[in-house]
UniProtKB/TrEMBL annotation:
Function: Counteracts the endogenous Pycsar antiviral defense system. Phosphodiesterase that enables metal-dependent hydrolysis of host cyclic nucleotide Pycsar defense signals such as cCMP and cUMP.
Cited Gene3D superfamilies: Ribonuclease Z/Hydroxyacylglutathione hydrolase-like (3.60.15.10)
Record's protein name: MBL fold metallo-hydrolase
Organism lineage string: Bacteria, Bacillati, Bacillota, Bacilli, Bacillales
Family annotation (InterPro entries): Metallo-B-lactamas, NDM-1-like, RibonucZ/Hydroxyglut_hydro
Protein's organism: Paenibacillus lignilyticus
């Protein structure tokens, strides 16, 4: 689990992408906000790895804090990266459709929510970034429709977890018994939750997506927002699902 901390929209925010590797693959799961490539590079260095070792990127879903640095990673890579996402999220990531949560009203609201001390120049740059989100080609489709494991990474199981977005995916890493949630779960003050209802396209689907986790022995969860949870995972999930 990486920790990427920066000031975003005038406030400090920490994201938790995940990095996995084996003899043939080095995989980054989600890519943070636009402009955060140097922070990703530094986080990898702290764990003894470099950007040049990356072979693949998995995007759990289309939100801008997950696809933000994807184009930069592709452009700076010395080799062709495999970019993996679900079929449903593909057209949004590739820029063929506008991100599902980005409407003009949503953009206006986001700009208004910036702290008053943010200068006008940065406000307009923020607006431009929302109106022109990053995009990149998805080279490989994943999810149950095309198989549930990543080739050359057989111990990484892909789980369809719609709700936060229609084609959201999560991952289960068998050797470490880790559920890599993306935004299917957030961690807030030690408690697992689904994301705020205003950020989910379907709250009921988000909760239903968690039912399948009872079939997996999970020792820890990595939430993109909140970080690592260790403890009685199934008890927290049951309390959440009801």
């Amino acid at each position: 689990m990486l920790e990427i901390t920066a000031i975003v929209m005038g406030r400090q925010d920490t994201l938790h992408p995940t990095f996995l590797w084996n003899e043939s693959k080095a995989v980054l799961i989600d890519t943070c906000y636009p402009g955060q490539l140097p922070l990703i590079e530094q986080a990898l260095k702290e764990h003894g790895f470099s950007l040049q070792q990356l072979t693949d990127i998995i995007i759990t879903h289309q939100d801008i804090d997950h696809i933000g640095s994807l184009p930069s990673l592709i452009q700076t890579s010395p080799s062709t990266l495999g970019v993996w996402a679900s079929r449903m999220e593909q057209p949004y990531i590739q820029g063929e459709r506008m991100l599902i949560k980005i409407s003009q009203d949503a953009i206006d609201q986001a700009v208004r929510s910036l702290p008053p001390e943010v200068p006008e120049e940065k406000r307009q740059a923020f607006r431009h970034a929302l109106e022109h989100p990053p995009k990149a080609n998805v080279t490989q489709l994943i999810g149950y429709e095309d198989g549930d494991r990543l080739p050359s990474f057989d111990d990484l199981i892909i789980l369809d977890t719609p709700g936060h977005t229609p084609g959201h995916i999560s991952l289960y890493h068998q050797p470490s018994r880790t559920f890599i949630a993306g935004d299917a779960l957030i961690l807030h003050e030690g408690v697992l939750r689904i994301a705020d209802s205003r950020l989910n396209v379907d709250n009921e689907a988000a909760l239903r997506s968690l039912v399948q986790l009872s079939a997996y022995p999970i020792d820890q969860i990595i939430s993109y927002h909140g970080g690592q949870f260790r403890g009685d995972v199934q008890a927290q999930l049951q309390a959440l699902i009801g």
